Amino acid sequence: MPEDPATLIFDGACGFCQRMVEDLSRRDTAGRLAFVPLSDPSVAARWPALDPAALSNAMHLVLPDGRVLAGADALPEILRRLPRWRRVAWIFSLPGALPFARRAYALVARNRHRLGCRTSSCM
C-alpha cells in the first residue's frame, strides 16, 4: 500500500526555492512528496495553525500524521522519502549534524537572493 505523501510548503515566489522544488520533484519518483506554494489559498485553509511569517522564512513539511517539520529539521524526512536518497538520511543522526544543518539552512535562507532568487519576496 503506497504511503500518503508529505506536503512541502515553500515560497513559490522565490526563484531559488522554485528550482529546489523542481529538483526534488524530479527525484521524487515514488510520489512521496506533494508541493504547495505558501501563497496557495489552500495552505491557510488546510493548516490554519501555521504562522504565515514562519512559512515565509523556511520550508515546512507537513507529514501525513499532521506533524510539521520546518527548515533543516525537514531535511532528514525529505531524504527518507526520496528513493535514491534515503540511504543518506542517517547522516542527520550523527552528533552535531542537525545543529550544523540548521545553521547552514539559515545562512542559505538569508542569502537566497544571492543564490538566484531575484524576486521581491527574497529581498
Gap between N and C termini? 43 Å
Strand order of the largest sheet: 2-1-3-4
User: What overall form do the CA principal axes indicate?
Assistant: globular
For the biggest sheet, the summary is: 4 strands, mixed
Low-confidence stretches: none
**Structural class, from secondary structure content?**
alpha+beta
Total separate domains: 1
Amount of helix: 25-40%
Present the secondary structure layout.
Elements: E1 6-10, H1 15-27, E2 33-37, H2 41-46, H3 52-57, E3 60-62, E4 68-70, H4 75-81, H5 97-110
Parallel strand pairs: 1-2
Antiparallel strand pairs: 1-3, 3-4
Notable characteristics:
123 residues; four-stranded mixed sheet; 5 helices; 4 strands; globular
Short description:
It contains 5 helices and 4 strands.
Provide structural commentary.
This protein has helices at residues 15-27, 41-46, 52-57, 75-81, 97-110; strands at residues 6-10, 33-37, 60-62, 68-70. It has 123 residues and is α+β, with helices and mostly antiparallel strands. A 4-stranded mixed beta sheet has the order 2-1-3-4. Helix 1 links the parallel strand 1 and strand 2. It starts with 5 loop residues before the first strand and ends in a 13-residue tail after the last helix. The mean pLDDT is 90.
